Amino acid sequence: MGLLDGKVAVITGAAQGIGFAIAERFVADGARVVVGDVDDQAATAAAEKLGGSAVATAVRCDVTAPDDVDALLAAATDRFGALDVLVNNAGITRDATMRTMTEEQFDQVIEVHLKGTWNGLRKASAIMRAQQSGAIVNISSLSGKVGMAGQTNYSAAKAGIVGMSKAAAKEMAHHGVRVNAIQPGLIRSAMTEAMPEHVWDHKMAEIPMQRAGEVSEVASVALFLASDLSSYMTGTVLEVTGGRFM
To answer: Of 30, 104, 192, 224, which one's alpha carbon is 20 to 30 angstroms from that of 232?
Structure first.
């Protein structure tokens, strides 16, 4: 028996990285998943890799576009008959110092992370409220806890996701809907491994466990928050950081 047997989950930004790892773990634990991603070809390839139409379907979704988010959530109910879990994972980076960051770079990151999460959270909550059940997992970041140089846009957005999650958790608790957040730290991925060596080494020196995390380790925490193992948890923020910035 899987922890998500019979459940239907929607995951944004699920064509690669942490989002795909979450989708993979959810399928392994019995869920059927809707892979949402702005790259429709990558989303389709991810759904096939997850096991094809019996367990996964792909939908192109720009999380900043409310109509796209409506279509993404509708795919869960139309294709699989339910919406039990939403993971708001889609994100981008546009790193630059405040001196060099453009207004467009700031707005892009706020739109995707903060408004994108709000779009998914608000629309999924309406569906889950009607059925009096559901779990929403929002992906924040350690950058939203401590702030990172060169990431005033990203740090602001990720901190905002924490406040948004807590406010939504208070609104939705008596409707049977739980809202929690995850703050990953340095997670090994194509993006982080492209860092200059001195930047990587500096970050590693801040981690008590002396290693980067794996996407599968974030996925395990997402599974916990999506499942009944966390049935008495809402409004929480779980750090997956190896102890960095405790």
So the answer is: 30
Question: Which of 201-209's residues contact partners 24+ apart within 8 Å by CB, and which partners?
Answer: 203/244, 206/244, 206/245, 207/241, 207/242, 207/243, 207/244, 208/242, 208/243, 208/244, 208/246, 209/242, 209/243
* Residue 84 CB-density burial (10 A; 0-12 exposed, 13-18 middle, 19+ buried): buried
Determine whether 164 is exposed, middle or buried from the number of CB atoms within 10 Å of its CB (0-12, 13-18, 19+). buried
Structure-block tokens of residue 243: 């102890």
Contact in structure between 137 and 164 (CB atoms under 8 Å): no
CATH class of the domain defined by 8-240: alpha beta
Q: Is position 232 annotated as part of the catalytic site? A: no
Compute the CA torsion angle 196, 197, 199, 202 (nearest 10 deg).
180
Q: How many CB atoms lie within 10 A of CB 5?
A: 10
Average pLDDT of the residues in 197-217: 95
Q: Which of 18, 15, 14 is nearest to 187 (CA)?
A: 18
Burial 119-147 (b: 16+ CB within 10 A, else e): bbbebbbebbbeeeebbbbbbbbbbbbee
pLDDT over 90 percentage in the chain: 96
d(CA 48, CA 56): 7
Bridge partners, 46 (sequence order): none
Q: Cα separation of 37 and 243, whole Å? A: 31
Tens of pLDDT, residue by residue over 89-142, are 999 999 999 999 999 999 999 999 999 999 999 999 999 999 999 999 999 999
Q: Which of 154, 181, 185, 242 is catalytic?
A: 154
